[in-house]
Amino acid sequence: MTRTSDAWSVMERFYAAEAAYVAAGGHGRADYAPVAALLDPEVVLHQAPGLPFTGTGEWRGHAGMERFLAVFGETWESMEFLEQRHWGDEDTVVVRNRVRFRARATGREVDTLIMQVITVRDGRMLECRPFYWDPRAVAAACGD
Length: 144
What we know:
It is built from four helices and six strands. The chain is an alpha+beta fold. Helix 1 packs across helix 3.
């Protein structure tokens, strides 16, 4: 059984790998292996509808996450974690992220809060549900 500190450690490594993947240009330009190594084969990402990078809202498995990160990487030129706080219980961690994104299409930046409820299994992310504080500002930065 994974303890909270272990779940948080997985997520710290995931956030670093995700940011590096986006910064390196994402799909087709960056190595996806460091990200995939931190994902359970049955991983599910539940994205809120209405944002430029959410697609159908549900991304499953390694291939689904790679597709999501391809769209995410096309949308964002950079992402910087400004502040992170976390709370958890065994295999679940809740993370409050203050993130600054820069949109590729517009060059605009948005500084926003994202709460994530994440489940980790055997040292890898199994499920993630992000909640954006201001989805309108996120979409506006992208030009929507």
